[in-house]
Amino acid sequence: MLLNCGARHTISKVSRLSQVRSSQIPLLLILLSQSACSHLDRYDITLNERTLYSPRSLFEDYYLPDAALADCVSQAIEDAEIVTADGLEVLNCSKAGIQSLGGLARFSELKRLKVNDNNIRNLVELTKLDALLEIQIDNNAIVDVVPLTALPDLQTVSLTGNAALQCHSLSQFANRVTVIKPEHC
Asked: How many domains, in total, are found in the chain?
């Protein structure tokens, strides 16, 4: 019997399968896996060339037209080992060279978004992110924040360094929202 954890990790070899009773195989597998393999959730586990377990693949079913945003989201998915769109709840893409947030609505459970020091102008894509609690969009090219005013759970918006922001649109936020305004407002 051969138990294999991933392509390069062979745990144990028992020369004669007939020596191991079928009722003992699950116990043997548990003991061997606990003693020799760490992070089993990252490997295919096979027994005698039969796959017993394959890890879930990282989430890839999205399209973001802005290459810088796509790179940032891809890295966040990899770092946090995200397997579904709903799994991405926190995203920090500051100083990434982002110009557009197009496609970000795919991640509907996003709760915290930090996109400081980019060149973002349009926030319309964020209107679909109903779970968003906090957004930091300091030092961008934001002109109008009206798309954010309808977000039901939004608690904090940071807008410092957005010199082109039309200050009158800030009055449309509900009282429950903490707004950190640019100096000219």
From this structure: 2
Q: In this structure, are 122 and 79 located in the same domain?
A: yes
**What pLDDT digit, counting tens, does each position of 34-58 carry?**
545 555 556 666 667 776 666 667 7
- Structural domain for 38, as ranges: 2-53
Using one digit for the tens of pLDDT, what is the confidence trace for 113-158? 999 999 999 999 999 999 999 999 999 999 999 999 999 999 999 9
First-last CA distance in the chain? 72
185: which 2 tokens? 């407002």
| Residues 119 and 28 grouped into a single domain | no
How far, in Å, CA of 66 to CA of 70, rounded?
Answer: 6
Which residues, 6+ apart, have CB-to-CB distance to 75 below 8 Å? none
Q: Residue 77 carries which side chain, given as an amino acid letter?
A: I
Cβ-based burial of 88 (10 A; exposed 0-12, middle 13-18, buried ≥19)? buried
pTM: 0.73
